[in-house]
Automatic annotation (TrEMBL):
Reaction equation(s) it catalyzes: L-lysine + NADPH + O2 = N(6)-hydroxy-L-lysine + NADP(+) + H2O
Keywords attached to this entry: FAD, Flavoprotein, Monooxygenase, NADP, Oxidoreductase
Enzyme nomenclature, EC number: 1.14.13.59
Broad enzyme group: oxidoreductase
Keyword Metal-binding: no
Domain of life: Bacteria
Recorded metabolic or biological pathway in which this protein acts: Siderophore biosynthesis
Pfam families according to UniProt: Lys_Orn_oxgnase
Protein name: L-lysine N6-monooxygenase MbtG
InterPro entries, alphabetized: FAD/NAD-bd_sf, Lys/Orn_oxygenase
Bilayer-spanning residue ranges: none
Species per Swiss-Prot/TrEMBL record: Allokutzneria multivorans
Swiss-Prot/TrEMBL cofactor(s): FAD
Record GO terms (molecular function): monooxygenase activity
Length: 439
């Protein structure tokens, strides 16, 4: 069956995570801007495998889809509270940080008010039509129907995918899961005599806390092994948080790429650490365990590198470990491994037809301009923008919800060629450059 041309738009955004939902929310109040968001899933879900009942968002409610650039937008978090008649309970609660479940409820509320988001639209291919000077987006619908959309500009918001390091790749699926799937694998967790968490970060700590609570209630043994020298807290002190502001992003983007890479590696505690509240909850469970008897073993070790994995004759996972301080190696035996090993950028297959037009750096990453557009062959007059694929170019703020509205306003100003949204300039007390602003 021949693909049918369905529509033409100013912007097609691919992927309906929080960042592209924020793009749609800001675009929804611009009358002469035609933007659609395409998503392969049938409805919205946000990290369901880690939706613990008491999990808190790590940023303020102001880090919603719109407020940090357009606080009067009808899709702000405060508008959500008003619309759902929850304003006074939120006010009395006196907590700036919503629960993660509440934030997902807010996002689903926003989705219900955004007809520009098209669900069950799987993008199969993106091509550049030189004659029309438009990107051609080939879409497969839930019923198998195919169609074509065209747009001047594209925004990629396909997000990340679970990363499993090579050292764990030899383990079969029944012995290994990623934190992203943790709550989906509850029966496997409950059946295991020992569950071992590999890696730190907030998701690893939340899984460790859940396992500790299960253990304290008579559940199985648990181990938590990390490469880091400590179970390090997030560095969310006020002046450090200024590195998530537009002021720091502008400074960071102007640095040589080698220096940017060094800084991202140094600043890992800003986006890979553990909230103080979670660390306190973990210690409290460990402290309460001292008063109990007959509980299964609990083990916490840091400074441990995993160098290999296999399954023994008894069907248990065996990890080859190295103690980083001493260099000594040992084997760790467990029934189930939970990889808290982070995420990596997706490499969307639908970009294959235009891959020869995309310019990358020596590490294969997009070359990203300050306005979040990637460098393309000069023959392409359209632009491709990226959301949360710019850690290497824009710094540790890239995955932070608090920068989403600013990034999206920057993109919309760029695609429209005018100032749709006034971008904040006074965003940090810290001066990052040398006096006079010289490079």
């Amino acid at each position: 069956m021949t693909d049918q041309v369905e529509s033409k738009h100013d912007v097609i955004a691919i992927g309906a995570g929080p960042f592209n939902l924020g793009l749609a929310a800001l675009a929804s109040t611009v009358d002469d801007l035609d933007l659609v968001v395409l998503e392969s899933r049938s409805d919205f879900r946000w990290h369901p495998g880690l939706m613990f009942d008491d999990a808190m968002l790590q940023v303020s409610f102001l880090a919603d889809l719109v407020s940090l650039v357009a606080p009067t937008n009808p899709l702000s978090f405060l508008s959500y509270l008003h619309d759902t008649d929850r304003m006074y309970p939120f006010y009395v609660r006196e907590q700036f940080h919503p629960t993660r479940r509440e934030y997902e409820h807010y996002l689903r509320w926003a989705v219900s008010k955004l007809p520009s988001v098209r669900w069950s639209h799987r993008v199969e291919a993106v091509r550049w039509d030189t004659g029309a000077s438009l990107f051609t987006v080939h879409v497969v619908h839930a019923d198998g129907r195919r169609s074509v959309m065209q747009a001047k500009d594209i925004v990629l918001g396909v997000g990340t995918e679970p990363n499993v390091p090579e050292s764990l790749a030899a383990l079969p699926g029944d012995k290994l899961l990623h934190t992203a799937d943790y709550l989906h694998r509850t029966p496997d967790v409950e059946a295991a005599g020992r569950v071992t968490v590999i890696g730190s970060g907030q998701s690893g700590a939340e899984v460790a806390l859940d396992l500790l609570r299960r253990n304290a209630s008579g559940g199985g043994a648990m181990s938590w092994l990390t490469r880091t020298v400590s179970f390090a807290p997030l560095d969310y002190t006020k002046l450090v948080l200024e590195m998530t502001t537009p002021s720091y992003i502008r400074y960071f983007h102007d640095l040589p790429q080698s220096k940017r890479d060094d800084l991202v590696a140094e600043q890992w505690r800003h986006y890979k650490g553990i909230s103080t509240e979670t660390l306190e909850a973990i210690h409290d469970v460990l402290y309460q365990r001292d008063l109990a008897t007959g509980l299964a073993d609990v083990e916490l070790r840091n400074g441990i590198a995993i160098e290999g994995s296999t399954v023994d004759s008894a069907g248990r996972a065996v990890l080859t470990c190295r103690h980083r301080d001493t260099g000594r190696t040992f084997e760790h035996v467990t029934d189930l491994v939970v990889a808290a090993t982070g995420y990596k950028q997706r490499k969307p297959a639908f970009l294959s037809p235009v891959e020869n037009l995309v310019r990358r750096d020596e590490k294969g990453r997009y070359k990203v301009a300050l306005d979040h557009s990637i460098e393309l062959d000069p023959s392409v007059s359209g632009r491709v923008f990226v959301s949360n694929a710019d850690l290497h170019s824009h710094g540790v703020a890239a995955p932070d919800l608090g920068i989403g509205a600013f990034r999206n306003a920057t993109i919309l100003n760029s695609v429209s060629g005018r100032e749709l949204y006034r971008l904040p300039k006074n965003t940090a007390y810290t001066s990052f450059t040398v006096p006079g602003g010289a490079g």
